[in-house]
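FAQ: What does the model actually see?

It sees only this:
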Amino acid sequence: MHLKDTEGAVLSAPTDRVDAGAGRLVGKSTQIESVRKVARLVGPRNATVLILGETGSGKEMLAQYIHACSRRSHRVFVPVDCSSLAEGLFESELFGHVRGAFSGAMRDSLGFIRSADGGTLFLDEIGELTLPLQAKLLRVLQERKVCAVGDTRWRPVNVRVICATNCDLKQMVAKGTFRQDLYFRLDVIRMELPPLRQRPEDIIPLAEYFLELQAEGYEEPVKQLDAGARAALRSYDWPGNVRELSNVMERAHVMAQGEQVRLEDLPKRLRSASPLAARMIEPGVGTMEQAERSAIANALRQTGHCKAAASRMLGIHVQKLRRRIVRLGLETHAAASR
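And it is asked to produce this:
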């Protein structure tokens, strides 16, 4: 990819992380619908957005959705993983450089910020920026200008910034590892994305979405999830969140022999997850009744005592779950825990 600056010079721009973005925020849980509603309100504005959430929870997917809801949706979306930028080239990758600025700088480079001019810049893992780079980023946000490494000219830039982190930036500010003024500048609109284990209703829609993407990439028919695979997907706790689910569905598409993804097409760690959530049963549980009670109690706890969501996680009808809750004396326990 080559771009021209205001003076007509052809400049190189990093292309491996430039993506127009899918612009879809997949899920049907109340949590994701609430996030989607805020994103639609925030999207048309240029306010800086700070997305909080665990690693792999779908923060980039949310950033792409905000971009798709904005007036910049027809322009470029540039995602930057701040934790993966090369040490020593961090500054030049972000702000660009001019020819001869350092050894190996054979030609001018725009950098990610100027590559996103007119569009959206997504800075993932913003807490990884060093203090000197934080100061430079703050100036860019305040003055809407950027100065490349080795240059003396400040060039105007029109970019919408969305940041994300799984770190506690307030705690980093208290420790002196993150600038307080930058934190306040980024924390204009704060959005929190719950981990996948807290929104089990989104597991199957996301799995089906990722299977669609795999089918599109391989130019093959979309494969469907059978009942066994669905039950295992719902029962698993997804420590790697949406990113882990995406990887599992890529494997499942490749491993599935027919038109359906079956339990045996999933990784071993998921195959061990039964409809009664073997992963949720506490070790040392003896009787079947104790095992059932443990599984149901854990499912209720993970779903915020939503019986409909818990029944889907356990793979049983909600009315049957209600009867078992009463029989096992979990109704009183659930009420007391609220």
